[in-house]
Inverse folding.
């Protein structure tokens, strides 16, 4: 008996070691994409003394999500405090979280199989209950589709939310199992929901899907039954309170605010209906990558996916909708016959309910499958159990899982090697996704950095990739801004059409990357660039007049960039003050706009105005503000006033002596 139990444990340990091995090359990679803004340039994560106030400030320093993801941000702050800013430590912690989640999925799989045997298949062998969860969680651990959630540092938000969601599901499954067998289990159910559900939601908003995953388990395995095999009203009330009621509240809010959802699409080049149509093709793409992943099709960026403008444009849209509908209907119809297969399929759809439906998010990201793909893996492995051929079945069941583990592990290892070096990663992305503006731009940007550092052979490919990125649709102004900056740094001619392209693109919808590029261009004017002032004025005014920014807090970012340009490039402190003030008034809940304004007022020694705005700052409710911030500015104002008085007194004494 002990030998039988030790073999699966040993095999799973080997799988964990294999996971570390396949990810190891990628641990040496650098920061990339959103890592810069969220981690590297986030000064709130950097503190010398570990105390509650500093940790609170760091935990609220993210601009992502409605809840600011404080659990994830706190983990990044602690990561930096104990291990420094080198990306290696961040990626190691991400890998540890990945392994812990794999262990959690192993436990969840055991609980699901025990519940399946108790309610549907009493003659299910102990070997299947023991080994199937090991195989499923092992495949999940080495699956290449999960790589971005590990090696893309900022996606710790996703992996932490997944870890806590899995733990919450373990509590729910155990609680329901005990509720049926022993009549008590609500402590586990409610504890899992509130404790782990809360941690999941505050890691990333898709932790709110925990009750939906619970419903999938309930529908397929427990079916709202109690210990007497009768309908359990308490379970129905549970889902009514914690799933249907919040969902109904959200729908009611949409009905009362019909323009709220559409407003989020103003900065997108697709509409709500086009996103829904496109997501059908995206989900089919995800399914293909879960079952048969391809290194050439996987990638950090998927902004090259064509938007579905109608059911027949492209025609694959209607085929994708038909495919997904057939799979979903089959899963619902086969709930009683093959519960585990149905559970896995419904699990996949539940995992994409938030990020792959109506919300105005980007079209596709691989990390959205980090928990959803577990369902398809479970369904595929469980489907092997349905093979009836007595002679062939044992060989299929024994050979197939290790074969797929090896295949997936090799693919993940190949991707991790690409991610071990930012140059190789960027070039591979551009080769595999030549129509992706972000992938092609990343290759140009990495060569631009090499060129700046003296590698002359990178100059030509830098401009080649950047020009190609600029020509692609949905590229924004970032490639053009980088070409302008690179040409100035290398003392090369700056093409006038680059400025024309920037201005013409800023007349269209502006996204976050465009805003960052605008700030970079303004910043470049007081370091290396010499763009004519009239041209810069036109560029900033075009951005300020853009229809997609009007009435939105993000307009404050443009005011701030313009203010910095006025102060540092032109020496116009009065104009800088004006735009910093407008930024505060436009986005009063954003901490850094207040800090910018107060620092400027202290710099120009306008202590009366600083006093006024500090009082306003205290009552603003700015997210992430701490008593330490208020006290620091209070002390700076008092110190400045005292120095001002001393200087005035000394000047009076000098004047008196002269007289």
């Amino acid at each position: 008996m002990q030998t039988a139990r030790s073999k699966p444990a040993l095999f799973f340990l080997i799988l964990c070691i294999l996971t570390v091995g396949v990810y190891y090359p990628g641990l040496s990679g650098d920061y990339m994409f959103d890592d810069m803004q969220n981690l590297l340039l986030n000064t709130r994560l950097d503190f010398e003394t570990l105390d509650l106030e500093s940790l609170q400030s760091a935990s609220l320093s993210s601009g992502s999500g409605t809840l600011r993801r404080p659990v994830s941000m706190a983990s990044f702050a602690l990561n930096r405090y104990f291990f420094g800013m080198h990306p290696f430590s961040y990626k190691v912690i991400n890998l540890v979280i990945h392994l812990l989640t794999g262990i959690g999925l192993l436990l969840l799989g055991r609980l699901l199989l025990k519940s399946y045997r108790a309610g549907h298949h009493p003659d299910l062998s102990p070997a299947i209950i023991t080994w199937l969860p090991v195989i499923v969680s092992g495949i999940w651990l080495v699956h290449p589709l999960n790589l971005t959630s590990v090696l893309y540092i900022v996606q710790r938000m996703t992996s932490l939310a997944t870890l806590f969601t899995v733990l919450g599901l373990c509590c729910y499954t155990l609680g329901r199992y005990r509720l049926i067998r022993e009549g008590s289990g609500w402590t586990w159910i409610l504890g899992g929901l509130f404790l782990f559900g809360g941690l999941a939601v505050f890691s990333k908003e898709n932790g709110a899907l925990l009750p939906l995953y619970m419903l999938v388990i309930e529908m397929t395995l427990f079916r709202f039954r109690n210990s007497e095999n009768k309908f359990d009203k308490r379970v129905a009330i549970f889902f009514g309170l914690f799933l249907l009621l919040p969902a109904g509240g959200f729908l009611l809010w949409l009905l009362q605010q019909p323009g709220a959802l559409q407003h989020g699409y103003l900065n997108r080049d697709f509409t709500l209906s086009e996103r829904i149509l496109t997501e059908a093709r995206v989900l089919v793409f995800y399914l293909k990558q879960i079952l048969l992943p391809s290194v050439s099709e996987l990638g950090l960026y998927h902004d090259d996916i064509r938007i579905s403008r109608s059911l027949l444009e492209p025609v694959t849209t209607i085929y994708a909708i038909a495919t997904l509908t057939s799979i979903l209907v089959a899963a619902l119809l086969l709930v009683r016959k093959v519960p585990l297969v149905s559970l896995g399929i419904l699990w996949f759809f539940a995992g994409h309910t938030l990020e792959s439906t109506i919300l105005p998010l980007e079209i596709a990201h691989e990390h959205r499958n980090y928990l959803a793909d577990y369902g398809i893996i479970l369904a595929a492995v469980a489907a092997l159990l349905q093979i009836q051929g007595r002679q062939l079945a044992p060989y299929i069941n024994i050979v197939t899982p290790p074969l797929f583990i090896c295949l997936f592990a090799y693919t993940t290892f190949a991707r991790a090697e690409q991610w071990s070096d930012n140059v190789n990663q960027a070039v591979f992305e551009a080769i595999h996704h030549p129509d992706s503006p972000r992938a092609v731009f990343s290759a140009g940007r990495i060569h631009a950095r090499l060129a700046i550092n003296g590698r002359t052979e990178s100059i030509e490919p830098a401009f080649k990739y950047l020009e190609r990125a600029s020509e692609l649709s949905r590229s924004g102004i970032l490639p053009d801004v980088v070409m302008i900056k690179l040409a100035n740094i290398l003392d090369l001619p700056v093409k006038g059409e680059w400025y024309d392209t920037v201005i013409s693109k800023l007349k269209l919808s502006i996204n976050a990357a465009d805003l960052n590029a605008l700030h970079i261009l303004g910043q470049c004017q007081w370091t290396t660039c010499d763009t004519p002032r009239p041209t810069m004025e036109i560029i900033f005014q075009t951005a300020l007049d853009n229809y997609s920014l009007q009435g939105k807090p993000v307009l404050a970012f443009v005011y701030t960039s313009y203010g910095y340009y006025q102060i540092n490039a032109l020496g116009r402190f009065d104009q800088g003050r004006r735009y910093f003030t407008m930024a505060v008034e436009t986005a009063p809940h954003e901490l850094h706009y207040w800090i910018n304004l107060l620092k400027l007022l202290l710099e120009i020694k306008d202590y009366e105005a600083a006093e006024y705005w500090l009082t306003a700052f205290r009552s603003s409710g700015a997210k992430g503000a701490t008593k330490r911030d208020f006290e620091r500015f209070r002390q700076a104002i008092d110190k400045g006033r005292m120095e001002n008085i001393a200087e005035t007194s000394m000047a009076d004494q000098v004047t008196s002596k002269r007289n």
